[in-house]
Amino acid sequence: MTRSEDLFNQAQTMIPGGVNSPVRAFKSVGGTPRFIQSAKGATITDVDGNTYLDYVGSWGPMIVGHTHPDVVEAIRSAAGRGSSYGAPTEAEITLAQKIIEVVPSVEMVRLVNSGTEATMSALRLARGATGRDAILKFEGCYHGHADSLLVAAGSGAATFGVPSSPGVPEATAKDTLTLPFNDLEAVEKLFSKQGSEIAAIIVEPVAGNMGCILPKPGYLQGLRRICSKHGAILIFDEVMTGFRVALGGAQAVYDVQPDLITLGKVIGGGLPVGAYGGRKDLMEQISPAGPIYQAGTLSGNPLATAAGLATLNLICEPGFYDRVGAATKRLVDGFSSIFTKAGVAHVCAQQGTMFGLFFTDQNSVDNFAHSAACDGKRFNRWFHGMLDAGVYLAPSAFEAGFVSGAHDETVIDKTLEAAEKVAGKI
Ligand code: HOZ
């Protein structure tokens, strides 16, 4: 028995499913999750001493690679001064300033502790500001696990076949309207009937929880237009795409200004952080500036703020996104030509440093129904083949892949060598 197997057996007796977040349990791909001992640069090492090239990157945060010395030093130095005060610090202003400088739509920002908190709070703000209850989300988009967002959700909820979770009150779920991603006409139709009741549209501008799916040309602009016309708030959930698909996030790539955005992952540099921000007139309605309540004992935590700032300083260096984006493109183009040579029908997607692969003979994958129709068994063979060859991909076909600044040419070459060997056997 491997040490991972032993630990997984123990964990299952004490932790639901043996894990503290569902997808990492390997349940849909089968086999034993690797228990991780340490990580460095582009690699993670498990408790059995196996080292893998890592394309999960803690599900997005590790954009500068694991244990980058600047980030480690920032955390170490912050920890020496105290791990939490429950009082404001100067570093929170520096981080807020950095976010405001870089993300086009953000005039004010509030730090929280996770992406879930960020989306939940942004929705409360949208509802409080508009006096409306209904929200629109898209099938297969995942915005964390707040009640009103676990309806037709992606990520683990889709992976395990419970996109609408038991335990969400019917009264809450009824205010969450859902439509397919990338279908602007359906949004127009809904708003022409119910536009005056809808507080907000929340969307992952590049979807990353039903695989990686890009918005069709004009789709995000269309959502912007519809929200402005009907007085609804447009929320871009950039927890995954923020500081990931480009320095300014998806809104910079697609040149669309949402009213509010949510952030997480990269801005915490691997520590638990989220944020929501946007128009000043909206953000000033948050307590104590305004009446809409939201709070958190650990919000603006000094360690998390320090790790986030160190990470942002590194990714703001000129050329960072060009370099890592080019590495991602080389990886995805490489996969695609290997699959084509091996006769494996596929669709690839890439935006900046984020990517997705679908095993399908459909011409394109534009929404959750398309993604769910892909060949899951082939994905599982691909996943395990790559894992055996030393490449750690997300253990679910509904997740995206992430490349970091530590994925240099050698790492990409090694990954493609592994893919060459695996593609013929899936
Ligand atoms: N929800 C994240 C994936 N999109 C985290 C999954 C996990 O850590 O299990």
Secondary structure elements and pairings:
Layout: H1 3-14, E1 36-40, E2 43-46, E3 51-54, H2 69-81, H3 90-102, E4 108-112, H4 115-130, E5 134-138, H5 155-159, H6 170-173, E6 176-179, H7 184-194, E7 198-203, H8 219-230, E8 233-237, H9 250-254, E9 260-263, E10 274-278, H10 280-283, H11 302-315, H12 320-342, E11 347-351, E12 354-358, H13 368-372, H14 376-388, E13 391-392, E14 401-402, H15 409-423
Parallel strand pairs: 3-13, 5-6, 5-7, 7-8, 8-9
Antiparallel strand pairs: 1-2, 2-3, 4-10, 9-10, 11-12, 12-14
Describe the structure in your own words.
By secondary structure, the protein is α/β, with parallel strands linked by helices. It folds into 2 domains: 3-67 and 318-423, Alpha-Beta Complex (Aspartate Aminotransferase, domain 1); 69-315, Aspartate Aminotransferase, domain 2, CATH 3.40.640.10. The protein is built from 15 helices and 14 strands. The chain has helices spanning 3-14, 69-81, 90-102, 115-130, 155-159, 170-173, 184-194, 219-230, 250-254, 280-283, 302-315, 320-342, 368-372, 376-388, 409-423; strands spanning 36-40, 43-46, 51-54, 108-112, 134-138, 176-179, 198-203, 233-237, 260-263, 274-278, 347-351, 354-358, 391-392, 401-402. Strand 8, helix 9 and strand 9 form a beta-alpha-beta unit. Helix 2 runs antiparallel to helix 11. The protein is globular. The mean pLDDT is 97. (4S)-4,5-diaminopentanoic acid binds at residues 21-24, 59, 155-156, 209, 399. (4S)-4,5-diaminopentanoic acid binds next to helix 5.
